[in-house]
């Protein structure tokens, strides 16, 4: 995790394997999220902070939100505090706290989803070194862990790989996650070099 202060007083917190480009556009700071997850705390300056993700542009002023661009899912914006604006041809769309924006479809199309307080805590868990699952498959969970550690989680059983998993786990302890999963699904864990293998055999 890396914290990057910007010249306008805004702050970026980058999750592991995340990349941004920051540049000045006619006197305004612009942040392009290339990949990964970024928690953005936009300052309350004279000009809003400009954010670019997948060709969409957002304006943020005195707001705290996550921008996520991962390979296996649509880009997303999750607002914790303040308002994030999506400029539009006729009217802008405002994203309010506890809201998720799915960046997909045509530029003029906006799909938002309300989030509960628990949902928001799960979305921000990575800032505390945690990873939260709520119904993802074990295979997806293993892929998520691979972003945080050189230890690879391998699900050796196809049926087991499709089992849903839920809970809050430390990103620094994939072996602990594997043991918890094995106990829940009556499986076995074995470690081989930098691989942790979970199977029912």
UniProtKB/TrEMBL annotation:
| Name of a matching Pfam family | FecR
Could you tell me which residue ranges the FecR protein domain spans? 2-85
Per its UniProt entry, which superkingdom is the organism in? Bacteria
Q: Where are the transmembrane segments?
A: none
InterPro entries, alphabetized: FecR, Ferrdict_sens_TM
GO MF entry, a single one: sigma factor antagonist activity
What protein name does the entry list? FecR family protein
Q: Which organism is it from?
A: Pseudoxanthomonas wuyuanensis
